[in-house]
Design goal:
single chain, 7-stranded mixed beta sheet, 4-stranded antiparallel beta sheet, about 0% helix
């Protein structure tokens, strides 16, 4: 069965760094998109970053460009979101996802940035 397990996250002060990990397993397809969404209380869900397994294309939202980096380790079947220079507006629940024939979600992890 398809499964995504997230780790990382937590609380940090403004300007700090965190790294999120998302280990995925059970996917039969080699062509997929994997990435991260986030949702803050009272706000719409926002696509933060994604990476395409086929051509390696990377997307980063304007709100995180220059601060966040997405990377993947295909051998470990894990995708990472390195978050630097964190701001209070980055506070949200972060979900990783894999899109193949369907869309599969991780369990979510809280990131809290305090000033």
């Amino acid at each position: 069965d398809e499964q995504l397990v997230q780790s990382g996250g937590g609380s940090v002060q403004v300007g700090g760094s965190l790294r999120l990990s998302c280990a995925f397993s059970g996917f039969r397809y080699n062509d997929y998109t994997i990435g991260w969404f986030r949702q803050a209380p009272g706000k719409e869900r926002e696509g933060v970053s994604m990476i395409s397994s086929g051509d390696g294309n990377i997307y980063l939202s304007d709100s995180v460009k220059g601060r966040f980096t997405i990377s993947s380790d295909n051998a470990k079947k894990t995708v990472y979101l390195q978050m630097n220079s964190l701001k209070p507006e980055d506070t949200a629940v972060y979900h990783c996802y894999v899109k193949t024939a369907g869309v599969y979600w991780g369990q979510g992890t809280q990131v809290t940035v305090s000033s």
